[in-house]
Amino acid sequence: MILLLGLLSVLWGDPGLCLEQGGGYSFDGDIRQFAVASNSVYIATEERLYQLSHDLTLINSLTQRGILKTGNQPEDAQFYRVSETAAWNSTFSINVLLPFTKSDSMISCGVTDDDCGYCEVLDLKNISNLLYREHIQVGPLKHSSASVSFLVDVKKKTQTDTYILTAIQQNKEQPENSKCGINHQTINLHDTDNKQGGGIFSLTDGASGTPGIKSKGDVEFVDGFQISSTIYLFSNALSDQTNRVRLIWLQGDKSKTDALKSLRGATLSTFDGESSRLVASSVIPGEQPVLWSGVFSVDGGDTNTELIVFDISADSSRGTDKDPDFYTSAPSRVTPKILKPKAVLFRQRSMTSVLAVRQRGWTVFFIGTGDGQLIKLAVDRNYHSACPTVLYWTDDDRKVFPKLHLDPVDHKHVYVPFRNQMKRVPVSKCSTYTNVQECWSAQDPYCVWCGSKRSCTFEGDCTDSDWLSIPDDSQHKMISHKVEKDTNGQISLKIHTHLTVGQEAASNFTCHFSATSRELCSQINPPPQFPQCTCVLSDGTLPPDGLNVTVKFRLGTTELSEGLRLTSCSDISGPPTSVLCQQCIQAGCGWSNGRCSWANQGETNHSVCQISGKNFSIPEISSISPSEVSFYGRNNAELSGRNLRDVTAVRIQADTDCTPKDSPVWDNTGVSVKFHIPRSDIKGVVNVCALLPDGSCHGKAKITYSSSPSCSEIIPSNSWVSGKRTVTLMGSHLDFVEGVVHSHTAQDVIVPISSSDQRLSYSTPAASVISSSTVFLKVANQTLACSTNLSYYPDPEFTSFAATRTGKDVHITIQKKADKLQMMIEELSVWGVQGNKTHQCIMEAKETSNDTDSFTCEIQSPPKPDFQKLLIKYGDISVSLDLGAEFQYLLMLIPVLLLIPCIVVVVGFLYQRQQHRFTDKMNKFIEDMELNIRNDIRQGFVELQTENVDLLENVGAIPFLDFKHFASRIFFPENEPLMESCIKDIAQDGVKIQLDECCQGLSKLIQDRLFLTSMVHALEDQKSFTIKDKCAVASLLTVALHSNLLYLTEVMEVLLKDLMQKSSNAQPKLLLRRTESIVEKLLTNWMSICLYGFLRETVGQHLFLMVSALTQQIAKGPVDCVTERALYTLSEDWLLWQAQDFSSLKLKVLFAVGTDGEVSEPLEVNALSCDTVEQVKEKILSTFKAKFGFPYNIPLRDVCIQYEKNGSFVPLEEVDASSEVIGEVTMLNTLKHYKVDDGGTIKVLSKKTHPPLSPQGSLKDDENFSGKYFHLIDPDVDEDQRKNPEKKKLKLKEVHLTKLLSTKVAVHSFVEKLFRSIWGLTLSRSPFAVKYFFDFLDTQAENMKITDPDVLHIWKTNSMPLRFWINILKNPQFVFDMEKTPHLDGCLSVIAQAFMDSFSLSETQLGKYAPTNKLLYAKDIPKFKQEVRMYYKQIRDQSPVTDTEFKDFLHEESEKHENEFNEAAALRELYKFIQRYFTEIEQKLDENGVPAELKEQLQHVKQSFDGLKSCSWN
Questions:
Q1: CB count, 10 Å around CB of 1473?
Q2: Cβ(856)–Cβ(896) below 8 Å
Q3: How confident is the model at residue 681 (pLDDT cuts 50, 70, 90)?
Q4: pLDDT one-digit tens code per residue, 229-264
Q5: Which of 292-306, 398-412, 942-956, 984-998 has the lowest mean pLDDT?
Q6: Range from 539-548, 865-874, 1287-1296 that averages highest in pLDDT
Q7: What whole-number distance in Å separates Cα of residue 1380 and Cα of residue 1371?
Q8: 285 FRET partner, CA 20 to 30 A, in 455, 573, 940, 1371?
Q9: What pLDDT score does 829 carry?
Q10: What average pLDDT does this structure show over 1238-1266?
Q11: pLDDT of 947 strictly over 60
Q12: Section 1410-1435 average pLDDT
């Protein structure tokens, strides 16, 4: 039980799985509008409108496609939505999205494809309910971030009316569409109700006409909102030379006309003059004054941005409707009011959005950036900023949408929109802080330390008022102290706690002072009063060497402790330097007149310590290389400048109040120093200065932190094993990489040859074996893995060369054996050798055939035309190649051939001498052999008659693979890179990713049946289009069309009919027998998709039990660890007939728990005396899993075992000093070797917690494992070489064939149940796909006038049992998360053969020489054949599957696994084949007479792919 409980605590952790950092939702198209209501989020994309719950769970989704009917007049137009699959001719693009909570409605306005306005009013709780629609313009017609819309209230005498305020950017050069009768002004007010006079969406204001505000010049609106009755509107007034940030105030009183005429304006002036531009905006919640924050671009671009706070309280002293940029009748020349900033809070590259939230006395800003960061910045009431933190970041630098919103339900998450994705990110990570100090040091206003819970939580999650948090002003320490001395010489220690606390914590505030050497405080101490307590020292002096004091606090149930070192302030003396000043203030003293004094007599703020060095030259910084790094930092950076001799460190400081990072310097030459750039948690620009010994910092430079490097491709993707091949990594930010590391040479860092942002070249390291090596990027102290590996192949082998004279030059042709290296001519250097001189051969070309590669080069004007030798160099290897080397080998063979007759004579003489001695020995040997054979035969007979089938059926939970991994293994069984690229990451499951323009075009093209069938026929007509290519294309089509299985089925039927027409003229019985065409592989994939449900629900359990039973039966007898042959098997090829005698053992196994020697209760494990140590470990872990239902928590390779012998434990090892060695081959140690008895005790330990004295990895990792070691099959060496010679019994293979029958009997019931689950009928019906496809074959046979029933039987057998079930029976790893050994594969092949024989029409006569795999099931096959014939008859007699039923079935299968495959990746791979055979496809399209539109689409797809570039959302 100790073991069980210990393991459960490890294995049963938190079941939650974070699919993606931050959690989120991805959309089918780019986000156009985004709005939040009381408990829902609404997102409008290009073609859909989504309604999500506050936690971003989909509630409803509405297509924006429909039918637009136009008339003679604009008002005659009508737009109706249609279903997802129906035809459509227009899209409703939303530009205004406003939740109107007062009326429980959602107002959405925009434009249809006729460029005219259209509006809808939807049910706020269910957007699929349409309440009203009208063809009218509200807001801009063109999607633009430079127009804003929001709801405003206008207070009238008896009521308050709500209107839609639209502020529209006016494009003077391209005015809005006039055909729709549009005459909108810049700022408008639309009705939201028919009761407001003019009707819903009306602009009129009764008798006052149609009021509106016009604009002068180009105005770009950024944001707008209403507070109380005041409306605020922000914009950029653009001109050729300058840009002014404008604020308009409107008063929502009386009427529309009065509200619009009440406009007053102001200009926001930043510190950077008239070049700044407003990027994003957020009002700061609170009472008067009205504070507002804006992100300003300093230089008018997107990079250099600042977050600035303004007081925007409305100014009622100035006249209305008088503004130079906005007017109701005519512009005014009045200069608007200038508003100055209150503070610049933050400087950061490319800020794009901001959201301000009040939290107690702090304001928390959430800031989105153009490189995909969400930054949190807490600012106190004095505008002092805490250190910013990054709450979320993307790996691909995606831009954050200009608007952020807080979760309206829990207020603990912020919505972060990207181009086509919405993330919901927690506003804080309070729970990650484990103690009071961490919780306080986070400087997070959201977090409090909850005394009752003893954890860091949100304030609202602390159920009482026993909590403490940071104070309302920014502080660097939780507890500070001052040492004061009054006029009477009395010294006081004053402690101040910098905290905000709940009522319960404040009312229970106590302090206690103590010192180790004496009574510290006198009796006249004032009582503690939060947040301060005082200790008046009982002794009026402090020791010269200082006094250690401990102060303990209690606030509610929370206890705090602070250790202080008290020093007499007058004893801190020396030259007045910055270091001395800091020491003084840190001691709780004050600084006055260049010396340290008591706290009440001097300044106690650290800012007073800016004292310049007296004895140092002031350093100047001219440059830093590199000045841009990834956020992991950079090693060995260089700072250059003047007067650097005295510099001790480089200080890196952000603009905010973060603790600076000091990086020590070395290699100081006076004009340059080396230093490490430390890592940063935030991307952006930081300041750099040079630190002197006196603490002062001088000079000014900047370092930019950017995203980390990533690599996606290696070109070429392989290297020769000797290394030094130049390869190129492709990716992003690769210029930040300092070195490259390979997994097989992890200690060697390779310096790049060259690097840029997207390319990096380096020389590969050598490898000792042919393998695959993972590539890592070394960035500062971080190692990042590349997504692709580098393969190693043998060095190129050059075989011969030929020299031909061409005029004065010599033409050389070099032959090389064909290999996988794809060597280019640029990688070869060749010289012709004549005597001691070499002549360079200039490389010209390379030609490739099946077996050889030919390289040609030319030696220009050599003195002699004859060359007998070449010098060839690749990488660091130089090889010489001689002319006619093959003749030299023949000469070397001649002496060897002459020796052969001599050897024959000697052998004959020795043979005759030994003959008599051998005869006597053989007679004795034959007698022993006969006795052993009799015993073996008797034992086999007894075993067959007494076999007790005790195989376990309780195998625990069945480890089914999910559909996408099952399907991908069927689709791409031999192409793992293609398989991985075509399935989505688990974090992307169920999320539909919008295809780019290229993939959309190709997807639309293959949805045309005429094009697709023409393309398939064109590809199959090409001789270079291999069977492997056909399978790949079929599987790529399956992935690309998986969402439309109905269409895929139609295409498959057309292609099958074409194939049948070809086969009918030859031999129809061979149809579908092999996979030699695209449609045959397509059929395999189709069957796999359609039968997956049947496989999992009906057949899967029987298949798993059969495989488990077979595995257990194999393990009952000896298994040779080296060859994997076993005594119990179904395959004669895998029969271990050489096994010697063995005995069964029951072992008591103890598991070590912890590191103190505790062990679990014993577990009984069955083993054999001939088992190796590795096999014993496997049986222990297998028994553990069967007993407890879950695997042991330590992997096999990390487990070591010990055997209890004479009261102590002896380690058991695969090989040790006592191992038997025969020649150069070592026998693996077994339980018999260690003399382990029945009932022996084995202890299981972890190598990590109990490292063995002589650690060794798994011997199977050795490449030459089978050559160095043996187990049960003796190596073929002389018996005299044995270390411990013993007489071994002769074994005959035929004697042990009964073991095949024993194994068959043991698993036969499982095999029968499996077969019958496949050809049995559930509820008297076969799976839909089987019935449908068999009926299809019947129909085709009838159409082709095929009357032979055998042909139909063979077609059906080839299409389903052979094409699908045999694949499953032989490859259970396609269905389950398991490994298939070669031995298990051999046994499954025997069962699969029996399954296939059951469907055969031929009667096979078996004799004594028939293969054993046929003989094993010979008696069962006739019975199985009868069952198969009945199965086929029952399917034929079933009622047909209706078209509706089958369409519903296919639609359901598509939806079940929607978005699990990477359609875009499949389309890109598919295009590679189209590109390769583009001309041939075009010709086939011409032959088939396809419409010109199809060919134009194909050309458009080609152009799109040819011009493919990275897309980014601006």
A1: 19
A2: no
A3: confident
A4: 899 999 998 876 778 899 999 999 888 889 999 999
A5: 942-956
A6: 865-874
A7: 8
A8: 455
A9: 94
A10: 73
A11: no
A12: 86
Q: What is the pLDDT of residues 422-466, one digit of tens each?
A: 999 999 999 999 899 999 999 999 999 999 889 999 998 998 889
| Cα–Cα distance measured from residue 1142 to residue 1243, given in angstroms and rounded to the nearest whole number | 23
DSSP string, 1313-1326: HHHHHHHS-BTTB-
Question: Which residue from 798, 783, 788 is spatially nearest to 718, judged by alpha carbons?
Answer: 788
Q: Which residues of 1098-1116 are buried (b: 16+ CB within 10 A; e: fewer)?
A: ebbbbbbbbbbbbbbbbbb
- Amino acid, res. 244: R
Residues 89, 68 contacting (CB under 8 angstroms): yes
DSSP string, 1179-1225: HHHHHHHHHHSS--SS-GGGEEEEEEETTEEEEE-SS-TT--EETTE
Average pLDDT of 1328-1332?
88
Quickly count: other Cβ atoms within 10 Å of residue 1244's Cβ.
24
- CA distances (Å), origin 855, targets 801, 818, 830: 9, 12, 10
Whether 665 and 650 have beta carbons less than 8 Å apart is answered as yes
How many CB atoms sit inside 10 A of residue 67's CB?
A: 14
Residue 224 in 3-state DSSP?
A: strand
What is the model's pTM? 0.58
* DSSP three-state, residue 262: coil
Cβ atoms within 10 Å of 1121's Cβ, excluding its own = 24
Residue 178: pLDDT band (50, 70, 90) is: low
Percent of the chain residues topping a pLDDT of 90? 29
Cα(407)–Cα(1157) distance, integer angstroms: 52
The residue with tokens 């939230």 is: 357
Distance (Å, whole) CA 1088 – CA 1048: 14
Cα gap 979→1031, rounded to integer Å? 13
Whether the CB-CB separation of 1137 and 1295 falls below 8 Å is answered with: yes
Check whether 1469 has a pLDDT greater than 80.
yes
Closest CA to 98 of 150, 135, 46: 150
Q: What is the DSSP string of 677-734?
A: EPP-SS-EEEEEEEEPTTS-EEEEEEEEEEPPPEEEEEESSEEETT---EEEEEEESG
Rounded-to-integer distance, Cα 742 and Cα 767, Å: 10
Token look-up 């930054």 returns 375
* Cβ contacts of 47-55, under 8 Å, gap ≥ 24: 47/91, 49/94, 49/108, 49/127, 50/25, 51/126, 51/127, 52/25, 52/422, 54/407, 54/408, 54/409, 54/410, 55/407, 55/424
Tokens of 1053: 């039927």
Which residue has tokens 């401990």? 550
Q: Report phi then psi at 836, rounded to 5.
A: -95, 5
Among 293, 273, 420, CA closest to 355: 293
CB-CB neighbours of 416 under 10 Å: 26
CA geometry: angle at 687 spanning 683 and 692, to 5°? 140
Question: Coil, strand or helix: which one is 1467?
Answer: helix
SS3 assignment, position 1338: helix
Which residues make beta-bridge pairs with 1495? Answer: none
Name the nearest CA neighbour of 367 among 386, 379, 351, 349: 351
- Whether the Cβ atoms of residue 1482 and residue 1011 lie closer than 8 Å to each other: no
Burial annotation 147-172 (CB, 10 A radius, 16+ → b, else e): bbbbbbebeeeeeebbbbbbbbbbee
Report the number of secondary-structure helices (H) and strands (E) in the chain.
Answer: 27, 78
Report d(CA 392, CA 962) in Å as an integer: 30
Positions of E strands within 1038-1092: none
Helix axes 1009-1020, 1045-1064, angle to 10 degrees: 40
Residues whose CB falls within 8 Å of the CB of residue 1455, separated by 6 or more in sequence, listed in order: none
Q: What pLDDT, on the 0 to 100 scale, is given for residue 990?
A: 47
Q: What is the pLDDT of residue 358?
A: 94
